[in-house]
Specification:
Helix content: 10-25%
CATH superfamily: predicted glycosyltransferase like domains
Radius of gyration: 15 Å
CATH class: Mainly Beta
Number of strands: 6
Distance between the termini: 21 Å
């Protein structure tokens, strides 16, 4: 069951991606759901900004419009020299094919995690 206020369950991931607006920022996906994701990177983005997210899901390159829902300093990076930020993104206007690809990817990730969980 999704936490209150969440429209879909998040799946922890560690995937390379890029945010593209006026500039390009390399980021890492921290978690992913059918409605959005959380990324970690060096750029702090303004809430409400609309940008492109580029990522590979199962070998397929996906480029989707996202809205910045939240942005904050990553507390785990406070002791390092480089600032890092956690940015929550909401997917905008996913095509049917993109939704299907995302759903299949998330299902595979959930199955892999369930299979590797200690019993």
């Amino acid at each position: 069951m999704a936490p209150i206020g969440r429209r879909s369950n998040r799946v922890p991931v560690d995937l390379p991606a890029a945010l593209v607006g006026r500039s390009r920022y390399d980021v890492r996906l921290v978690d992913l759901s059918l409605t959005g994701c959380l990324v970690r990177g060096e750029a702090r983005l303004d809430e409400g900004a609309i940008i492109d997210l580029e990522l590979a899901l199962g070998g397929q390159l996906v480029n989707v419009k996202v809205r910045v829902a939240s942005a904050c300093v990553d507390g785990t990076a406070l002791d390092s020299e480089a600032a890092a930020f956690l940015v929550g993104l909401t997917f905008l206007d996913l095509t049917t094919a993109e939704q299907a690809s995302l759903r299949a990817f998330l299902e595979r990730e959930r199955r892999c995690r369930a299979d590797s969980a200690p019993r």
